[in-house]
Amino acid sequence: MRLPRTHRDDVLIAAAGLACGLVLWSFGLHTQGPGTGLPGGPVVLVPLLALTAVALVRRTMPRTALLAGTAAVVADQFTRGNLMTVVMFADIVYAAVVYGTPASARRIPVTTGLITVAVTLGFLAWYRRPEALLIGVVTALLTFFPAITGAVVRNHREAADTARLRAEQTALLAEMDRRQAVIAERARMARELHDMVANHLSAIAIHSTAALSLDDPDTSRDALGVIRENSVEGLAEMRRLIGLLRDSGEHDEPAAAPTLDGLDALVRQARTSGAGSGLTFRLADDRAPDTALPAPVELAAYRIVQESLTNALKHAASGEVAVTLRPADHALTVEVTSPYGSRPGPRAPGSGAGLVGMRERIALLGGVFEAGPAEERGARIWRVRAELPVTEDDKEPSA
User: Fold this and answer.
1) Which residue of 117, 143, 205, 362 shows the fewest CB atoms closer than 10 Å?
2) Is residue 114, in this structure, part of any structural domain at all?
């Protein structure tokens, strides 16, 4: 079995104790007088050498060191004695509490306290003189007080370790919160960027393909007009988003977010972009006039309609695209239907990020989102339906 490595400080303590003990012995200084009849000479060094060896393992084997040290200090009482022997034993008691097991740290102070009381009472009963109390004081100085000191030091170290661990856990939780916040902000930015720009880029892709594939000057001119309009609007949206990101944290006023009042313009723009694909657009807003909704609900509803119209421009067959807004008890229902099936002519590629973004928006508000093919009046359609919860406390007063 491999023995634990001796700590450097233990080596220094053992060397210093041995050196001081040898100096005291060389000058003939002992803890007990010459009239006691106890042996002196080199035999006094035996307990000292034993305590020196024990001090080397005071940190790595505290329990063994305490047992061996106790035997050595008891043996020292049958000689003339050496002061450094009992001093080193006091250090062994201290180390046993500081570096020992939690059970030893609890038991040693109690045990040394009981030993101190027992020694004091025993010598009082034996000598029947008040001076016997001094023996109890010396016993306490060598056993009980080092044990109490070790317990205090151990408690402080454990409290410091607990505080350090709590600080590390707090830092870890803060880092996790920061990462989650960054991920959430990136997802929000991705949704905003996709919803703002995808509509314009889809129209540009469709009409540029039409202009390249059809040899008709009027059609090409109309397509180029739509391309220019969407390019200018898309560039403006990009500048607004870049400005919002650049100025984040520098201004107290938030940037204005789209509201449902802009749906008419959004549908007109889609009508212009989809005219060449045989698409017509209809908006049915059943909300009461001057109805004010929470800003997150209006933004989510606007983005759902915007993305649904973009998907219709990309993939819908010829026919009518219907946008419907219906208020209900504590909810706003947004539904967009479009013809489902293949269509002739150019189509813009899709990435699937739009549906993911819409689903994430609704999930953040605690609503219900559905998207997929359905049957309506015997025709195949693609339906996007979202229920956005609206509580009475959330409703904003109308102007």
Assistant:
1) 117
2) yes
